[in-house]
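Cross-posted from the bioinformatics board.
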Amino acid sequence: MSHHTPADVLVLHAVRTLGYGDTAPIAGRVGLPEGEVREHLLDAQARGWVTYSSYAGEGGWSLTEAGRAQGERLLAAELDGVGARAVVEEVYRDFLPLNDVVGAACTAWQLAEMGIGEQTVTLAETIATLQGPATALAGIEERLTSQLDRFAGYHHRFTTALTKAGDEPAWITGTDQDSCHRVWFELHEDLIATLGLVR
Amino acid sequence: MLIPLSEADGRCGAKAANLGRLLRAGFDVPAGFVIGDPIGDDGWGQEIESALLDLGSGSFAVRSSAFVEDGGQASFAGQLNTTLGATTTAQVVQAVRRTALSGADPEVIAYVARTGQAAGNVVSVIVQVMVEPEAAGVLFTRHPVSGADQVVIEAAGGLGDKVVDGTVTPQAWTVDGGELTGPGLAEAPVLTKAQVLALGKIGRRIEAMFGVPQDIEWAIADGKIWMLQTRPITTRPDEAKPVSSEPGEVLLRGTPASPGIALGPVRIITGLDGFDQFCPGDVLVCRTTSPAWTPLLARATAVVTEIGGMLAHAAIVAREFGIPAVLATPGAMTMLADGQRVVVDGSAGTVTARRNDERNR
């Protein structure tokens, strides 16, 4: 049976993968009531693991170095407790070539949008290229969630963004929405955090 | 049916066809053969044992003959299902089947499983003698971002897969006519000057043969330069624009990863706890970025990182915000100083000191 991660660990980890965000988006990500998530965030703040800051009127939580280290300790203990390290390492090896495809597709599309280049890719070609990683992501998520259920959701988010991209190209690389690149970037961070790797 | 790589043409998939062309032109390509339709045609099962014997003992690389642009699924799966180091016939056969099936969409795989019959979507598979390289990497015969007419070579020790996975910063050289720039003296170079120049020449010859700029994978084993793959550079920037940076001392060079030129004060951020030091309009200088850094990039005037490359997440986010980015700039965090005013040219890949300005504080 797949392991269920405790709520306090989920919340701390969501701050890491999200990077920066207020209580509501963090609650949305972990699928818990906002009030409960706020309690966990305030606990983590008291321990010096997260910090709250405001930029231009918008506030959000982000991790401290101590919080990053604590998160990695918790995830490593969970990973070895479940006996899932080998599976996640194997998934990460399979993820890297896909990461290259996604990075190249996003880059080619951005350069095309900027008008740099003669033989530029079209939106349809970019979406077609990203279908491959999207399909593979289903298998990757299945392997991960067979061990740890907290990995659920990436495939759905990625394919949702990819579907929307046909009408609204910002869903490819936009940073202010749950775009293909953003979802992928978060999964990369999730795997790095889970395995305790350094970027 | 097995086709010797030296006879491969368009029916064998684009990758094999290009390798066949290189072989026929006299370039060194590891010996091998192509299986045109591993799913639909079972005949190869009987031929493969003797074909492997002909290649000699050792280990083999099994790869899809489809390129990334050949259609998302087939191509990405081809990359995913590269098998390196298969040694026995059984291992090679298994790898060939896996690679061939990976190119098919799920319905096709289900159909094949159910009926034992192939249905369209043929992926040719290449089996080659594996070289055990001292160094390997990629080369572009045109700068892939700036479009400058120079050969760009990226290299790392050992197998070339590390160069593309983004976790290792490759050493980079550019060959511009007879002029050569290489990595700093801080690290031991993985290539000799002669090897860099030889690679540059080979790149130019292959480009001339195909008639368009090429993106080439290569390896050096026992001192010999092997070609592993060549394909056209699909996104070719406009002709190189003249560098219009402000005059002044070029402090650092890195990979130009997001175009544009911007001026601002350097802010070196070593980690998450340094975020509150960052002010809007600063030039963000750091090792690399993770999702947590996106709010900083949103307010930065430019970004300079020590590792990464053109396809790195930091590059993609920087382009999204429309700020210049120079990546893979070793020593940026030690050679620049907080508050120092610099011009970051994300098209040329340079960080330049602002003239007539105090160096620091």
